[in-house]
Amino acid sequence: MDQPTAPSHLPIDERLIGELDRLVAQAGGDPASEEGKRVREILHTALKLIDDGADLGELKLLSRSFKELRYALKVFRQYRQARKISIFGSARTPESHPTYQAALAFSRVMADAGWMVITGAGDGIMRAGHGGAGREASFGVSIRLPFETNANVYIVGDPKLIVFRYFFTRKLMFMWQAHAVALFPGGFGTHDEGFETLTLVQTGKAPMMPIVMIDRPGGTYWSQWDRYVRNQLLANGMISPEDLHLYHITHSPQEAANHVLGFYRNYHSLRFVHDTLVLRIRRPLQPDQLDQLNHDFASLLKEGRIQQGNALKGEREHLDLPRLYFTFTKRNYGRLRLMIDRINQYDAQNHPDQALRPSEEAPLKLDLADQTGGAS
Question: pTM for this structure?
Answer without folding.
Answer: 0.90
